[in-house]
Design a protein that fits this description.
Length: 474
């Protein structure tokens, strides 16, 4: 079966080839670049951290491509592939056996490995046809981390120096790789990421026994220091080579181990603070493998949980919230019904209402419905005039959320009550409302893991329409 998939109708397997290793080797020799592309783009769909931004590199009239600091717009195909970066694995062969990963060595899946030239050819051909704006290259572990990263290095070295490709390149760093290789790759790639995989060392030991926390943190630290050093050098010497100019990111699988949202947010916060990461990505666990160590979650982790984590992550990065303000050991998980900012505001009603014409920027940022841009606009506009609710609408404030928490010149927009249940009921859109007054159900104590039927129904409603992307790879 396996060899049929890989060979297609190109050639019959000779009778004499009996041994299964020989069949596999024979099949691999027959793979065309398109066969490999099919296998390796499919295998790469499990990696979510393939965003791009922060690199400005104009075309120079000689070489191919450029980068825009505004980042590349992505769209995701129905199966989760990112289609404005060519998102591929260099290889889906893997010497490791991470329990949650489809590419683990104990799974019987079609395998393929590109050559460095094939990666270059594909990237250039896709770029010339305007299908992609950059490359996202990850890989399973072929033989060992150094061997694999050496192949990846050869590919991006050729891309940059032989094919003269100036477009965006994001490379996944494999834990355990020699620091010299990481350094060489860092001077060619725009962004690098090393996956944390699981939030705790215990989780890692249980589900990814070949990976070790210190092997993951070491390259992260090296990249962080390299970025800082490179920034300093660029100030002194204008033409100094840039090291990972787009910054580094990481990815965590959520729901495969029992950590709470609070623990995840604390890990995230410490990654931002201690490793200066650009982004932390969360990948909702989906059960694709059978293993007694894996949780028996039908359909995987609810994507609404992943969504709430991204919302909270945004609050940490741009709204100056601390993880401890959003959650605690007593309240370890996000409210499924309300976004983390609204939920925080409802737990801190003593800080509201906020007077729009007087509150400082930091206070404005904490009002639900006011974003970074609208807070900046409010601070600018009120220098010349007293703002009204009509003005706020024009400045981009989402009044349907903000109106419960603000006053303009001492007046609220409508005659509303500053009361948790009342505001919650009104914040939920009609189709999301629970039968609040019918049987005494309240919104107060609901959490991600409440198992009341209404919650289950709501969960399915909200999360059901979204695509589920399994986690995994490197
Ligand atoms: S997560 Fe990475 S290292 Fe682990 S089995 Fe999958 S491809 Fe290999």
């Amino acid at each position: 079966m396996k060899q049929e998939i890989m060979l297609g109708d190109k050639q019959e397997i000779p009778e004499v080839v009996k041994n299964s290793n020989a069949i596999e080797a024979f099949a691999k020799r027959q793979q065309t670049i398109m066969d490999k592309l099919k296998i390796l783009t499919d295998a790469a769909k499990y990696d979510v951290s393939c965003s791009s931004s922060g690199v400005e590199r104009k075309g120079n009239g000689r070489d191919m491509g450029n980068c825009s600091a505004a980042g590349i717009c992505h769209s995701f195909s129905a199966d989760g592939r990112c289609i404005s970066l060519l998102k591929i694995l260099f290889s889906n062969e893997c010497a490791y056996d991470c329990k949650y990963c489809i590419n683990r060595r104990s799974n019987d899946v079609p395998r393929a490995t590109f050559t460095p030239d094939e990666v270059c050819e594909l990237t250039m051909n896709f770029y010339r046809r305007n299908y992609i704006e950059g490359l996202f290259l990850s890989s399973g572990i072929v033989n060992n981390p150094n061997y694999t990263m050496e192949l990846i290095y050869q590919a991006i070295y050729k891309l940059r120096n032989v094919y003269r490709f100036r477009g965006y390149i994001h490379v996944k760093g494999i834990p355990g790789t020699d620091p010299l290789l990481i350094q060489k790759i860092g001077f060619l790639a725009d962004r690098m990421s090393v996956n944390l995989e699981l939030p705790t060392a215990d989780g890692l030991k249980k589900l990814a026994p070949n990976k070790h926390r210190k092997n993951i943190l070491a390259p992260m630290r090296q990249i962080q220091q390299g970025i800082q050093q490179s920034k300093n050098e660029v100030i002194l010497y204008k033409n100094a080579p840039e090291f990972v100019p787009g910054g580094q990111s990481t990815q965590m699988i959520i729901g495969a181990t029992p950590e709470s949202d609070y623990q995840l947010m604390m890990v995230t916060q410490s990654l931002y603070e201690n490793f200066a990461l650009k982004r932390v990505y969360y990948s909702a666990y989906v059960g694709i493998n059978e293993d007694k160590e894996l949780p028996a979650v039908t359909g995987g982790t609810p994507l609404l949980r992943e969504h709430r984590l991204y919302q909270a992550d945004w609050l940490l990065r741009f709204y100056h919230f601390r993880a401890e303000e959003l959650l605690s050991e007593k309240k370890p998980n996000f409210n499924i019904l309300l976004d983390p900012k609204c939920d925080w505001a409802l737990q801190h009603l003593e800080q509201f209402p906020v007077e729009i014409n007087r509150a400082d920027y930091q206070t404005l940022l904490r009002v639900p419905g006011i974003g970074v841009k609208s807070a900046q606009r409010i601070c600018g506009a009120r220098r010349t005039a007293r703002l009204t609710f009509e003005d706020l609408k024009k400045l981009g404030v989402v009044l349907k959320r903000a109106l419960y928490f603000i006053t303009c010149s001492g007046k609220m927009m409508y005659n509303t009550k500053l009361e948790e249940d009342y505001i919650t009921r009104n914040l939920l859109s009609v189709h999301e409302r629970l039968p609040f007054d019918r049987d005494g159900v309240t919104y107060k104590q609901l959490s991600l893991f409440d198992d009341g039927q209404e919650n289950v129904r709501l969960f399915e409603h909200v999360a059901g329409a979204r695509l589920k992307i399994p986690s995994g790879s490197v």
